[in-house]
């Protein structure tokens, strides 16, 4: 026992995840890279990384029963953090090259191509607009984060009118159009950018998440 | 525009060591790419590029080790180029800790390798590295070269950028062979010509000598700027100086 929060990075064959593991360690977590059911379900925090195509990430997740684990953790109020395509798959569906693929449907909305007139992929350090009460972006209001993506969620369709609910905190960014850079919704958080590649600001964001576990 | 202009130092690595030397004070080992990566990270680099100039495959193992150690310690994007011929090479480098790989000669010899790589790993991992020179041999006046600019190919550089972008490269690193090493400034005409034919991010390289050289490259259409010796041999705050020059010209920097 180290006394640090234990975090599992979901190992389902997604590209370069070493930096995510190392960055989370540096940010103060005890990190395991695994797809072991018990470990995934019981960890204090689960990180769902993801690069490449939406449909490919979904089918790789299904192969290890990922959607059920993620759903079960969220139902049990256990924190989950999606990164990049791991953020995108939390929405209803992704449409790449005109072909729709079903997502995890934790949030309403579609992941669609960034506008034709923008330089794509959206690659580099961009600003974000977090809400005042954001936990992830606490102390990070004016920082830039590293993005690499060609698709994004461009509208927030969540019904926030039900007063008794704690409304999700949505952080926006802009590249050709406004798009969702991060969502914090009870146990489920996700970022379109890569905190593990965003230098000191990204490290602080991961620390903020780990401290909330 | 809210995306900032990326400033990228490039390190030539041979058998796990930085070649071309680096002129920094207070470095324990100026030949250690990992220590230099730390230093450039602290100095405000937005990304790092390692160009592996290793000749033998045995020595290449040491490069993988350097990439891994860098990725474990420096949390900004890392691109690795040199000697990449197949999806297998890309797989190895991504597993080793690279975020992106750049491909040059192998893509010129066999353009299909671009489709193979992006089909498997996505377009965000692949940078087309292009050494181009002015030439009367092509319609646009810009020609693709290989072997560090020594060999002309007769291929039109603009047609090649269009083709590579259609095949799915996520980014183009445009190095001007004519400007490279001159320290007289970027080839802004070539940058705008390439910008006009593609919408993927464009990194300009070759010719940077002073901070004032950078804003014109961005005005010409570069999304990012890459330099080597100017950072290696310049004062310790050269990245900050370059960013100040870019900011003063009205472009956002981190």
UniProtKB/TrEMBL annotation, chain A:
GO terms for biological process: L-histidine biosynthetic process. Its main location: cytoplasm. It catalyses: 5-[(5-phospho-1-deoxy-D-ribulos-1-ylimino)methylamino]-1-(5-phospho-beta-D-ribosyl)imidazole-4-carboxamide + L-glutamine = D-erythro-1-(imidazol-4-yl)glycerol 3-phosphate + 5-amino-1-(5-phospho-beta-D-ribosyl)imidazole-4-carboxamide + L-glutamate + H(+); L-glutamine + H2O = L-glutamate + NH4(+). Its EC number is 4.3.2.10, 3.5.1.2. Pathway: Amino-acid biosynthesis; L-histidine biosynthesis; L-histidine from 5-phospho-alpha-D-ribose 1-diphosphate: step 5/9. PANTHER family: IMIDAZOLE GLYCEROL PHOSPHATE SYNTHASE SUBUNIT HISH. Heterodimer of HisH and HisF. Residues 8-211 form the Glutamine amidotransferase domain. The active site is at residues 84, 194, 196. SUPFAM superfamilies: Class I glutamine amidotransferase-like. NCBIfam families: IMP_synth_hisH. The keyword Protein biosynthesis does not apply. This is Imidazole glycerol phosphate synthase subunit HisH. It comes from Nesterenkonia sandarakina. The keyword Lyase applies. One of its GO terms (cellular component) is cytoplasm. It comes from the Bacteria.
TrEMBL record, chain B:
One of its GO terms (molecular function) is imidazoleglycerol-phosphate synthase activity. It catalyses: 5-[(5-phospho-1-deoxy-D-ribulos-1-ylimino)methylamino]-1-(5-phospho-beta-D-ribosyl)imidazole-4-carboxamide + L-glutamine = D-erythro-1-(imidazol-4-yl)glycerol 3-phosphate + 5-amino-1-(5-phospho-beta-D-ribosyl)imidazole-4-carboxamide + L-glutamate + H(+). Its EC number is 4.3.2.10. The active site is at 12, 131. Pfam families: His_biosynth. One of its GO terms (biological process) is L-histidine biosynthetic process. Keywords: Amino-acid biosynthesis, Cytoplasm, Histidine biosynthesis, Lyase. CDD domains: HisF. Its main location: cytoplasm. Pathway: Amino-acid biosynthesis; L-histidine biosynthesis; L-histidine from 5-phospho-alpha-D-ribose 1-diphosphate: step 5/9. InterPro entries: Aldolase_TIM (IPR013785), His_biosynth (IPR006062), HisF (IPR004651), IGPS_HisA/HisF (IPR050064), RibuloseP-bd_barrel (IPR011060). It is found in: Cytoplasm. GO terms for cellular component: cytoplasm. The keyword Transferase does not apply. IGPS catalyzes the conversion of PRFAR and glutamine to IGP, AICAR and glutamate. The HisF subunit catalyzes the cyclization activity that produces IGP and AICAR from PRFAR using the ammonia provided by the HisH subunit. Heterodimer of HisH and HisF. NCBIfam families: hisF. Belongs to the HisA/HisF family. This is Imidazole glycerol phosphate synthase subunit HisF. It comes from Nesterenkonia sandarakina. The gene is hisF.
